[in-house]
Amino acid sequence: MAIDNTSTKVITGKVRLSYTHVFEPEADDNGVDKYSTAILIPKSDKDTLKKIQAAVNAAIELGKTKWPNGKVPANLKKPLRDGDEERPEDEAYQGHFFLNGTSKNKPGIAKPIGKDGNGKTKFQEITDTTEVYSGCYAKVSLNFYPFEAKGNRGVAAGLNNIVKVQDGDFLGGRSNLSDDFANEDFEDDLGGDDDFLN
């Protein structure tokens, strides 16, 4: 059975990002610098979950050509995990499945800015490192692939591109600046002079 890249590639619906390191890489458990983010998928998003399952199955078929004896290991590691079971203490993970997307290469990071003359979405690259963070919402391009490392075999999710679609509350205890100061009056602090910047 021939498998092409399109069968292992998924564009998610709206998901939430967590443990987000997409502007600068961080060393993984093996000391390899990688860009990464956890991706929280609502359990109600059946379409994205079906696409991920199909891509994981396609990656398993690819793995049979690489793993010993062409067999699927009994202890195969799969990328999709249940937030209710694995992170019961974390409110953000409740009602979600999650997976970790990683890449040695920096992912494309952008936001939609309208349509062009042909009705195709136009994008603007995001370079402000504060604009994509743990807690914001995005659509993500992933590629699933089989791996074998240190005796472990499974399917992992490669991180391709991220399109931010919505702000959200920061995850990890950081408060939102706008929320913190929403009811504060800064006019006196600014001298009350409308022309102070001119």
UniProtKB/TrEMBL annotation:
Coiled coil: none annotated. It comes from the Bacteria. Residues 95-121 are annotated as: Disordered. This is DUF2815 family protein. Pfam families: Enc34_ssDNA-bd.
